[in-house]
Amino acid sequence: MEERLRTMEERLQSKSSTEEQLQRENEALKTTVEMMQAKLESLQSIKEARQVAFSASLSASGSGHTGPFSSVESALIYRKVSANFGNGYNSETGIFTAPLKGVYYFRFYAHCHTGNKMAVSLYKNDKVQCSVFSERPWTNGNASNGIVLILEKGDQIYTKLWDESWVYDDPASYTSFGGFLLFPL
Amino acid sequence: MEERLRTMEERLQSKSSTEEQLQRENEALKTTVEMMQAKLESLQSIKEARQVAFSASLSASGSGHTGPFSSVESALIYRKVSANFGNGYNSETGIFTAPLKGVYYFRFYAHCHTGNKMAVSLYKNDKVQCSVFSERPWTNGNASNGIVLILEKGDQIYTKLWDESWVYDDPASYTSFGGFLLFPL
Amino acid sequence: MEERLRTMEERLQSKSSTEEQLQRENEALKTTVEMMQAKLESLQSIKEARQVAFSASLSASGSGHTGPFSSVESALIYRKVSANFGNGYNSETGIFTAPLKGVYYFRFYAHCHTGNKMAVSLYKNDKVQCSVFSERPWTNGNASNGIVLILEKGDQIYTKLWDESWVYDDPASYTSFGGFLLFPL
Question: Domain check: are C32 and C92 in the same one?
Fold first, then answer.
């Protein structure tokens, strides 16, 4: 009897150390899993956040010239939208508003007929970023430019005609504006 | 003896509750880990799915004009391929076929010599998406356009000359076509 | 007493099998978690590795022509940097050096005034990849080209004027160069 009791006490003792080991292992696993969850969520956010991309061409219907104007106050409005993921682009105003902080790529294409100046600049908020210019081309003017920009949430990107210049568009869509998020910051 | 037995029974009882707690913790960990694995696989799929990008220029060798044709039936075939990840682009037909549903960016550049019309449109399936046009430029015509498009798997993107128009290319590669997946849907 | 001892021995026996099961479960969980960590790290690397994007226009200040030169040895240097994530672009040399192996997109825009030739090529190391060309345009020359390229770490991308040709830039930024990583390989 005494012998059996001693054996059991020893076995109980050994179980205690096994249990402690299991508890330590579980603690370690829980810590690891929590760290992984945080990383996963940060990665998950890339997938969703990256979905910002738009492009539009000037004429939704019909054909015609835009400009020339003697004093240009507002953005060129590209009305025929081919894509607008993330709803950054507003086809009533011509302005793209960054839905999140990140690095973006923008580009625009301008087209005109003979006989006048074609000049368009791309703006970030109120500052010119890049431009195209074609002084009274022999026949058609065709020009484009593009830029990589770091935007804060809410920054506004748009294009604007210079004074006394014009662009042309019809259903074939020559004059267009677009951009997309490269990566969030 | 009676005392030792009672102590052991109490210790056994306490172990039971420790074990139950360990089992509950393990169940919770298993559930968490399974959820994380599902998320991980979905994220893993981004990495692989995103690898779609191509570009090509018209002439694989030699120099010369393509066009003018009186009735244009088929796509411009860009034979000098610089990249074709995802094998979407077919350099025998000039057609890019979307390997997966997603949002893509495409752009093309056209170049011609003096004396004729340069006009090229980019098509999604059988619909014009955007174009370039240069009527008998004084010297060279240079024009480009680009667009963000939402494609279903199998949608076809290609460029086509207009009737009675031409493009030029030589080993310097002026006339080109390309695109890439921005994100899968 | 004998009865209580036997009961305890049975309970101890049952605990042993519970413990063994818990240990097996923990081993399985540890293996799963280790595999997931490896996958997570590989995914994490996408997020960081993807942050390569730059663009720059020719003139940091003032306006003027670059060229014509009779023998062009070095890259066009775009000094007004709008973004340079990943520090691939060097605004002292005009050269972008790939910080990692991957698939990249590059594009450039060239602009000139009337009366001379505008010709620019984009190089990968010492090989021309694509070009623009405008022979003595009637008024302004505007042209662009772009390409998707597979780069090894250290590959160099830059643009170069042809002999006897020029580009123009001023604070409106017409002549520019840029690119970004599409995905690492």
Answer: no
